[in-house]
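Let us begin with a simple case.
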Amino acid sequence: MPNLSYNTLLNRTDVWTNGSRSNDTVTLLPFGWIFSVTIGASTNAGILAMVLFAQRHVSTFNVYLINLLLGNLYHNVPRPLMLLLMTYISSMRRSHTCCTLMLYFQGSSMTVLSLSHLLITINRLWAVFSPYSYRAKHTRRLAIGLCIAVWLSANTSQNAALIMDVLYYREKTPFLTGHCYLHSKSMKELTAVNYTVFWIVPMFGILIGFCAVWYVRRQFLRRIDAMVPSSQMTDAPHSRSEAGTKPSKKTTDRNIYRTYFFMTMWTIVCWLPIAVAQGLATFSPVSQQTAVNVFQVSVLIFYVETIVDPILLLCVNRDWKMRVCRRF
């Protein structure tokens, strides 16, 4: 996140700074890093392994969900692990290489998550606004290609700022004062573009897209209810399920939207606190300590979202739950 106020908050809340900085604030984030590395990696990797092992055929929409779990795993392991090591190993705290890696993981992992959720939202917008085109043109190969594009864009977007920071703006001994961040004041235009394109735009896109998909889907279901008698709507699905045949396309479609709505609502709820903390630090005349406290809580909520994501997907996605229960 190449924003100056964001980096300032990180600089005051991460506890891999020198001893004099530890008195500035009592931070909860080290416990969050430990929780992220252990529980976050276990839930995402475990459920991802179970789903992949249980599914012989991965549907196109499940490609995006698997990509999201990979993004959660990438967000929950490299950067928190680096921060834990830099907290207790003094040589790593003063290493330019460790600082560069930490900043790289910080920016790329959050960008992967924001773009992955935005990609799922775009997928659902395509499905509801142009269903015939979606069925004809959306293939598993296209879904995999879009997921690869997300990872490439997320990782390459950080390179320009990091290269300029290392070559031109990095202090010779930045860690003697506990500073490890992109010098955004020196790269104002570049960091503003990165922050807008890879964080602000995806967040608004996810929120607006979710509202649009919910409204169009609601109107569609109302038209279906008005056209088909209730007796026919209740009889047909039961006959199929009792026969044990493959779920109908209508059932699969409902399962996809059920998964999308629950997952996106959970994401919006957990991402809003970081936006609030960002706004308090940038625009509100609150004390720095208050901004730091709000930011700590918002970061912990953000990590909880990535940890709970796989459990939520397994609970609301009936296809995943059915396949995993049959296999195990």
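The second case is a distinct protein. As before, the sequence precedes its structure tokens.
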Amino acid sequence: MINSTASLAPAAEAHEQSGSPVLELALQPLMDVKVSVPKVFAYEALLRIGTPCGLELETFISACERNMSIANVDMWVATEACKILALFPDMKISINASQLSISAPEYISHVVNTAAKNKCATRLLVEVTETAHSADGAIAPGLKKLYEARIGVMIDDVFDSFAKRHLIALPFITGCKISRRTMVRLMAEEEMTGKNGHIFGEVKSLVDRCKGTGKAVVMEGIETEGELDMAKKLGIRLCQGYYFGYPKPRPGSRGSEWNLDMKQ
């Protein structure tokens, strides 16, 4: 994973529990399954806590969102992702950003400027997460600026928590992601009823609306062939999950076993 001296100190509550760990990134493939042999379409950069410290990632993120330091963390992730994209011109990467970060002008400026500096804006996607709430009027200007800079904007985990599903209709939103949690609900519904039910209908309606307006849909958390079949039944082309591959250290880092031909 990416070695960094980025301290968790900005999240004081979390840092008190953790000593002095560092932040790292791992990359997980996002696959195009509408071809005879599924192929990598992009990678998601997933935040990890580097040194063993007994601190859960969700606890850290929650602490950062509570004390409003999350934008610092999300800026670090954007910087590291852009560095990777600069090294691999055929690669695409999506990064997560809290709604609180999207509301911060300094975060938006940092992402736009860093992507421009590394000449990777068209290969960078920003996923707006659902773990904290910010008003539509606070996040919409930032999302529009990202789009105007040719950076893709996705709504993450659209059926969960504080997800901004209703913003998908906006012209500067390029797509959405459906979580592992929703996939579990879909599979449970099918097992219980033996047919497509209310949950399936709700998800299929969203997928159809997105396809009709040229927006991408990604199904996350696919772990079995049955779950992949469910995604295909819903008409979803882009899929992600342990079925295709676990998160890996970045190319070229210690412990990495990447095939550096990103076209494969």
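The two ends are 21 Å apart (CA to CA). Residues 12-240 form a domain with the TIM Barrel fold (CATH 3.20.20.450).
Keep these points in mind for the review questions at the end of the chapter.
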